[in-house]
Amino acid sequence: MTAKTGDILVQADGVCKYFKVSGGRVLHAVENVSLTIRRGETLGLVGESGCGKSTLGRTLMGIYAPTKGKLTFDGREMDLHNKKERFNFSKKAQIVFQDPYASLDPRMTVASIIEEGMVIHNMYDDARRRERVLELLETVGLNREHANRFPHEFSGGQRQRIGIARALAIEPEFIVCDEPISALDVSIQAQIINLLHNLQNDLGLTYLFIAHDLNIVKYISDRIAVMYLGSVVELASSAELYDHTLHPYSKALLSAVPIPDPEMEAAKHRQIISGDVPSPINKPKGCAFSSRCPLACDKCRESAPKLQEIRPGHFAACHLVEPEKDDV
Ligand code: SF4
Q1: Of 172, 219, 255, 278, whose CB has the highest number of CB atoms within 10 Å?
Q2: Domain boundaries, the chain
Q3: What global pTM score does this model have?
C-alpha cells in the first residue's frame, strides 16, 4: 500500500493509561505514546499479548480516558473525562472486536445489534433505521433476510461481518480493528481483510489495525507501530519496516513470520526471544526490552531509550540505533 498523505485525524501526545490494581499497585498499560494517524490511513499496531495494544486502541477511540497526555481528534483536543464529550466522540470512533462469538449479544437479533448505535445516537426514524440495517447487511456481504436471525445461526466469518456492520452503522470516521481476524479460520481471514480494505476505499475510513502477527498487518497497513510493554518501540511505513527493520524486538517478531517457500523457511535464521514480557506493574529499569534483548548492555539497563527519527519517517527507540547523518 502507498503511504497516505491526508490530514491528521488522530493524534496522541505523550498518552499514558494506568490502572490501579490490588495492593495499591499501578499497572502501566500504555506509557508515553505519541503518534498520528492520517485520514484514510491504516496504522498497524503489533506486539505480543499483554503489551498494551488493545488498551492503546481503546484509549485512542475514547473508551478509556488517558491518565496523562493529550488526545486530539480531527484537530480538536478531546476531554475524555467529560461524559458528554465521550458520548459525542463515540459517534466518530468505533471498534470491531476480536471475538465475533463473545462480542454479539446472543439474545438480540442481527437487526437489533446493528441498529443499537443508531438508536443510542438518535439517528433517523424507525423506517429509515430499518432500511439502513438492510443496506448495511448487503454492504458487508450478508443478505437482507439475515436481519431477523440470531448470532448463533451464523459462522465466525459471518458474525464478524455483523460486527463490522454494527461498527459502520453510525457512520464513524475512525475504526479500531482489534485483532478482527485472529479468531477466524485462515480461509476466512483474507475475506474479512478484503472487506475492510474495500470499505476503507469506499467510505474513506481510517483504521487502527491491531494484530500480534506482523504477517497480517503487512498487507493492510500503510504504516506500522511495534509496541512493547506499553510503549511504541518502532514506527515506519510498512515497506520501510520490513526492508530496514531497526529495533531488536521488531527483528525478533519479523523472524517469527513463516516464509511460504519451505527451502527459504528452513534456511532462515530465526531469532527466538527468550522469556516472557515483564509485568507492566513492575517494569524493568532502563530499556523495557533489556531483560530479553540479546544485545542489552549496561547503558540499556540504566536508561530508557527515546523514540527518535532514525531515517526519514522511520522512528525507533534503541540505544544501538543512531539517526542517519546527511552526506556532507
Ligand atoms: Fe536492546 Fe538496548 Fe536497544 Fe533496548 S536499548 S532494544 S536493550 S539494545
Answers
A1: 172
A2: 8-92+172-316
A3: 0.92
